[in-house]
Design brief:
Layout lengths: L2 E2 L3 E2 L1 E5 L2 E4 L3 H14 L6 H13 E3 L2 E2 L4 H7 L2 H18 L3 H17 L8 H8 L9
Helix pairs in contact: 1-2, 2-3, 2-4
Length: 140
């Protein structure tokens, strides 16, 4: 698995000497455009999209395994395309988390903090009071 300075891992093993690599936004957009030209019917959209994505992401010894999405469709079964596309999506999600994912995590943390049992005598407040004892009303 390779390392990228900015994102961490940029490749993950796909088995049989093949690797899946992360794609740039431009490469994903090109894959979507190629898929749009390949699909004849709407129900084929996911299969064509995944094949075009894998044609760009799947490599063996640093070279693409398939020249195009059409070649990927011809060279792999539907099940293999689905399995590799799922593996790539999980890898991409792990290395390039979405802003929405972070928002959900922050919301969960906010909820956890807002529902915890709070007392003025817990945590930092109690250590401050030990260092600064309460003064009596009467002074000498």
């Amino acid at each position: 698995m390779g390392r990228s300075i900015l994102t961490g891992a940029d490749r993950v093993s796909a088995g049989n000497g093949m690797e899946l690599r992360l794609l740039s936004a431009m490469e994903v957009m090109q894959a979507r455009r190629e898929a749009a030209t390949l699909m004849a019917e709407q129900r084929e959209k996911a299969l064509c999209s995944n094949a075009c994505l894998l044609a760009r992401a799947l490599e063996r010894h640093g070279k693409p395994v398939f020249a195009s999405g059409e070649a990927a469709l011809s060279g792999m079964s539907v099940e293999k395309i689905a399995q590799l596309a799922k593996q790539w999506a999980e890898f991409n999600h792990r290395e390039n988390p979405s802003v929405e994912d972070e928002k959900e995590r922050v919301d969960d943390l906010k909820k956890a903090w807002s529902t915890r049992l709070m007392s003025a005598w817990n945590g930092v407040c109690s250590t401050v009071l030990v260092r600064c004892p309460r003064r009596n009303a009467s002074r000498k």
